[in-house]
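re the bet — no i am not wrong, look at it urself. input seq straight from the record:
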Amino acid sequence: MVEQYGAVRERIRVVPNGVQVTEFFPPQIRAARHLRHALGIEDDEYLILHAGRVDERKGQRELIDAAPRMFELARNNRKRLRLVFLGWTRNFWAQSLEKRIKHSGLEREVLLLPPVPHRDIAQYYWASNVVTIAGPYDVMPLAMLEAMAAGRPVVATSNGGPVEIIDSNIDGLLVDTTNIEQLSGAVMRVCCDASFAKQIGAAAHKKITLQFSWEAATERLYDIYMELCGGNTGLDKIRVKSTYSCG
């Protein structure tokens, strides 16, 4: 806005997307296990989840291209992986991606699942070991915020909005997702280091709760309204009525 429209930087306020944290936390372990078994994923397999529509910008190609290296690293570390794409629909791009999967011989290791109602998405986060935001660029992916709210380790693109949310190696991992070694290495780091995965998952949940819940977003919006109305009005936030006017 500053560069393209001449906006005054000091007058810009940003209110991020909000997440209803209670929909995603605490994880329901029984539901997660039931889903994994329904999908044919065994207890010792690491589920790598990508949730989103099939689109050239959403990162399915980047994950599929990195998959052979990812599975090679897994074998070297005696780990078993399953790559799950949630939200798969048939279109021209999907057909191209399916050919890539077949060419790599990964039909058994890759699951292509159709979209599910939003009320059911949490159990897929709970069932996963790591959630990826693998597009070469993203703005403010809701799947990332939801996965973090669920306490899941997230590997996200270092190009775009995720940089404003994730402190890499603290509450998630940021990588160049077009780089096969970086993407596969970050995923395997989470899968191979349970302590690290638990640490960044807990930090992610804490950050979303404090800074990106709907309660936090509402507080920020309220503060902007109060600023526009002349600063501190002395009103108790809890007692502000919807009829309050700036006059």
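see?? Residues 194-211 form the longest helix (18 residues). told u. also The mean pLDDT is 92. so pay up
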